[in-house]
Amino acid sequence: MSRRTLAFCAASFAAFFYAGNYSIAKDVMPHYVEPLGFIVLRVLGAGLLFWIISFWGPKEKIEKRDYIRIVGAAIFGVGINMLSFFEGLNLTTPISASVIMTTVPICVLILSTFLLREKLNALKIIGILIGLSGALTIILYGSGNNRTATNPTLGNILVFINALSYAIYIIIIKKITQKYHPFTFIKWMYSLGFLFVLPFGYQQLINIQTDMIPVSGYLKIGYVLVFATFGTYILNIFAIRELKPTTVAVFIYVQPLLASILAIGLGKDTLDIVKITAAILIFSGVYLVTRKQKKLH
Predict the structure, then answer these.
(1) Distance (Å, rounded) from C-alpha 254 to C-alpha 234?
(2) How much is the mean pLDDT over the chain?
(3) From the centroid of its chain, how far is CA 161?
(4) What pLDDT, on a 0 to 100 scale, did the predictor assign at position 297?
C-alpha cells in the first residue's frame, strides 16, 4: 500500500473519530464538565499522551525560526480551535455544528489565495459564495431543542470561528510536517496550547465534581481525549504530510453524514429543512471549490 493511500486511510479514520465527538462531547457538557474546563482537561490529557509517545519517536532538534510556526499552530490548532468549538457545541446541536465544519475547505481556499497565492477561477469563486451562503443559512436560521441547544445562533457562530481557525492551522502546519516527524513538534504544540487555554478554563476545571461523574461519563471523556483528540491529530498530521491542505480539508465533509447518523441514533438531534438546505449549499460549494478544471488542448 502506497503512502498516499495510507494518508487517505488516515484522513478517513480521523473523520470517523471526530464525527463521534459531536454527540459524545455534547453528552458530557455541561452535565459533568463545563466547556472551557473540558478543553483544559482535553489538551492536558492529550498532551501527556503525545509526550509519552514521543519517547519512541526520532530525536530531532527544532530550529528556532520554526518555533514561530509551532506557536501559531498552538494558538489556531489547539487554543482558538478547541475553545470556540466546545463552547459552540455546548450551545448548538451536533448536526448543525458538523454541517458548519464542512466550510473548512472553503476557508482553506480563501486563506490559501492570500497566504499561499493559490489562483482563483470563476468556478471556485461561485463555490465559495454558495458554500458561505449555506453556512450563513444555518448560523441565522438553524435551531434545535431548547434543552440541548440553548443559544444555537451564538453556538453556530463560534463553530464557524472554529472552522476558520482550523483552516489557518492546516496552512500553518503544512511545511513543518514535511520537515519534522509529528512526534517532534506536536508535543510542544500541545504544551504551548495548554498554556493558552488554561486561563480560560481553570475555574471550570477546578469546579469539576469527580465523584459525581459515572463510569459512562469517564468513558466518554476518555473517547474525546484518546480518539477525538490524540488519534485525530496523529492521523491528520500524517495525512497532511502526504496530501495537499485542500485535499485533507475535503475529508471534513464526511463528518456531517457520520455525525448525523450517530446524533439521530443516540437521540441527540433531529434533521430539519434548514440543516438539509444548508448542507446541500455547503456541499455544492465544496464540490465546486475542489473540482479540478480540465486542461484545454
Answers:
(1) 18
(2) 83
(3) 11
(4) 41
